[in-house]
Design brief:
The protein is mostly helical and 160 residues long. It folds into 2 domains: 1-70; 71-133. The protein is 76% helix and 0% strand. The protein is built from 7 helices and no strands. The protein has helices spanning 2-15, 22-35, 38-50, 54-65, 73-105, 112-117, 120-149. Helix 1 packs parallel to helix 3 (38-50), helix 1 packs across helix 5 (73-105) and helix 2 packs antiparallel against helix 3. The longest helix has 33 residues, at 73-105.
Length: 160
Amino acid sequence: MGLLMISETINDICKVSHSFSNEEKEFIVQFAFKTSDKELTNKLIDELVESVDETDSIRIMEKYSVMYDVKPTWVSQIENLLVSIEMYRIQEQKAITRLSEVLGAYGIDVSEDEVRTADSESIKAKIAESQRETEEQEEEEADKKSVESEPRCTLREPVL
């Protein structure tokens, strides 16, 4: 439940037109993970959006930090690592999706699964192969155009 909550919270943060500081973003995600309370997390986001300055946002974060249990430091460290791993996983997924879209736009058919599982050399080989095919097609088209544009010499027999 916690990792799903992180993903939803990150989406909620992105939807808001407020520019959160890195500390605020981290606190919001940590709070969402530790409490798993969507409604309370949304309330926290709303209050941070309405905060006037850094002092106000610090006060709000202190107020909300009291709401979750104090745990041993090792538990907090593990939770922090899990949150970081999930955030990196989300960024990796976005990067893979974007790379697949860009390659597709250039006519290189590579699925997200292929990008995820293949090594970079095989993807480079596909790109090089696609580039060679494109160059060959362009050369063929240029040859056809040059043949079509050449004047044709026809000899006509005299009519008797």
